[in-house]
Structures are given as structure tokens and as C-alpha cells.
Amino acid sequence: MKILLVHPETSRTRYDFLGIIENECIDLECISAILQSANHFVTIYDFQVENESYKTIFSKDTYDAVYFTGRTMQENFMLEYCAYTKHVRPSCITMIGGLHAQLNYKRLEKDAVDYIFTGYNHFHILEVLEGKNIEEMDSICYKDASGNWIENPKKAFDIKKLPLPDRTYFYEHPNHYQYLELKHAAWVRASFSCPYSCSFCHRNKMNAGTYSTRDIKDVVDEIAQIQTENIYLCDDDFLLDKNRVQTFVQEIKKRNIKKKYICYGRSDFIAKEIDLMEDLRDIGLYYVLVGLEDIRDDKLQKYHKLNTQNNNQRALEICNALGIHMMGMFVLGLDFEKQDFDMIYDWCKKHRLRHVAVSIFTPEMGLSSFKEYEDQLITDNPSHWDYLYLVVKPTKLSVRKYYFYYYKLLIKLFLKAKREGVYDFLDYNYFIQTFIKSLITGKRYKEDD
Ligand code: SF4
User: Fold this and answer.
1) Which CATH superfamily does the domain covering 178-441 fall into?
2) Which pTM was predicted?
């Protein structure tokens, strides 16, 4: 069979992070490896790095099946492409999987969609295409003979059973898949899901809520084979198990692998494991992405973060002292007032946090807590679930005022970054002008608004 695997665009405006942060599509590359091993012909198309329309791509061959993967913000595009596919070739099988599908499959149960995969067992895609008994499969939604959707129960999948991704597509795009100034960064995944349960986060609900890990020596074997200098360890929390991280360091040293690494980690681990952080720095840890979330303990408690502001501060001091770049990520609460936005900026300045990412609190559709926010939503367009958009009415400010302080914070952070020369590869002027325009209009600026 001829199968097209697609990662749709996240936005149809310039207001995105293309050219700054682009994520290698390792799920598509894993699926590709599985399908090719059964002698199917696979084409990958990633809208992050190519710019032809879906119509053009789909017309290039007589595909028997198409598979889309994406997050909530890509829902509209995935459904639009399924509808187009069925319109021009009704016999073509349409399938959707990925993070959004795992929790929000009901939203995808449409006429133009044939199968929805709600887990990480990518072998089910092959089984569906080969006509295996779908009733016996877990983690899949499909239609019965009357067209009613059947939702088979989700089941955790052991990450060790997945093949390595076929990185042909990644290597064909050497000028893409960067993380900020780290060019052509290959994604490596050592685990599924996360054992913590922060209230705002849906990552811990992936893989049927089960944390699953690979043998760390296998992970290092994979890294050793990758022909690029930069490695993005994309686990939701790579710095979780001290022994595992120590083994990682030992194996990288033993094999004399010289690369730069990006990973996610929590501040409590960094604050406690100074020596290990130094070892990580020595083997090439360049960026550590840390969900600081807030600078106040009561807010961290509200988020069930099981962490403290003291750890956040200590972790930042350690990273700064070791020369590891911490990307500190904050959640801007719906109850924020002017002083809260100011407080975030002042904290970053005082504690010398040079890389800052701020997200507007966005209730995840797949979480049970979403119900609390449903009657306060100010948009139901899934494209707005990009954490740069206010989707719920703020509690203490008008929407206009909230955006005003949000853009003021972004402008201050960008000017600070510019002064410190942090993002010299960026078109600062474009972003700052965009933020100023948004600040004046008091609403999210998008070219298609
Ligand atoms: S915010 Fe981070 S630590 Fe918390 S559940 Fe999500 S991935 Fe895990």
C-alpha cells in the first residue's frame, strides 16, 4: 500500500515558532519504520519544513491511506484534510493519532475519519491496514457497520517494543528541526508519559496514564548512531531517576560521544543533584527546560506541582553557575493582575533567568478539570489552544487589559533578551512590532484575525 503520513501546520499565520523551534516528527518516523518493514511505501510530509498545500501533496500519488498526527491546535487542519481526502478519493483510509487523539478522540469522530488511535502502539496502524481483527485491538476508535463509533479501551504500551524511528526524512532536511540556536536537533525519546500529576498538564495522561521507560543503554546506542550534533531528549521529564541519569552520563562518557543535549527537568531534581548536573554539563547538556510555573508557593501548590519556589530559585542559581542554559517556563494564571505580570519579569531579572517562556493558562480539553472552565470559554476554536491565546475569561481583568499586560511582559522580556544578546538569531523587530500592535489593540494579534 501507499501511505502518506502527515504532520499538519500549527497555524496559517506567521505567528508561530517556525524557524525557531521545529520538532522532529519521531512518531511519524516510527510508524514509517513499522510500515516499511512490512513492505509498504511511505511518504512523510511535515508542514513545519515544507510549504506545498495538502491538495498538491495528496495529488502526487494514489495513496491508499493517510495518517495525521497533531496537538489540539492542529485539530481543524487534521479534520479538514480528512474531509478533503474523502471528497477526492472516498476509498482512501483516513487515520488520526497523536497527543490530541489520545485524550480527545470524541472530537475527531467524524464521517471523514475512519480510525482514531488513542495510544502509542503504532503497530495497530499496520494491523488495521492489513485487515486484522479490530475488535481485538486496544486503544482504537472505529465505526461499526451502521456507522456508529466504537471506542475500544485504551491500554498502556511498553515503549521498549517500538522500533527506532527511520530518520531518512530528518536527514533530508538538514536546515530544519532546530531548537533555538541548536541546529538540526534530533529527537530521542526515552520514556512515555510522566509520573507526576500537575493539575494543568495532560502529558501525564498519555499512554493511558502509564509511565514507560526504555533501557538507558539502548537510548545511548540510538544517540551514538545519530548523525547530528544536537540531541533533544524529548521525555516530559528526563531528569527523574538519579540512577538512570547517572547511567546515561557514564555511557555517554564511556563511548566518548560528543554532542549537545536539550532536555526537560524539574527544579527539585536540579536543586538536589548539583554534582550530577555538573556531570551532565560536562557531557554536553546545553539547555534544560524547566516548568517553573510560578514564583509563589501557594500557586505551585494549587497546580499540584509538589515543588517550591525555593527549588526554582536554587535550580536557576545552579544552572547559571554551571553554564547550563535554563529555559524557565511560566504559566500566567487567569487571576493575574498587573502586579503578577510585573512580578514574573522582576523575578527573571533579579535571578538572571535569561531564557523565559510564558504560557497563558489554557485548560486542556482532555482533562476532567476542563468542565470547570467550559462555561467561561471565550473561544471554542481548537486552533486557539496554543498557550499564546486567552481561551477562558480572566477572573480579575478584562480580556483587553489581560492582553495589554501580557504583551507588555513579552515586550519587556524580548527587550531584556535583546540587551543580553540571548536570541540574536531572531528577527527581534518583527516580534516586538507584533507585540506592540497587540498591546495597542488589546487582543491577540494574528494575521488572519
Ligand atoms: S508539568 Fe511536567 S512534571 Fe508536571 S505532570 Fe506535566 S510533564 Fe509532569
Assistant:
1) Aldolase class I (3.20.20.70)
2) 0.95
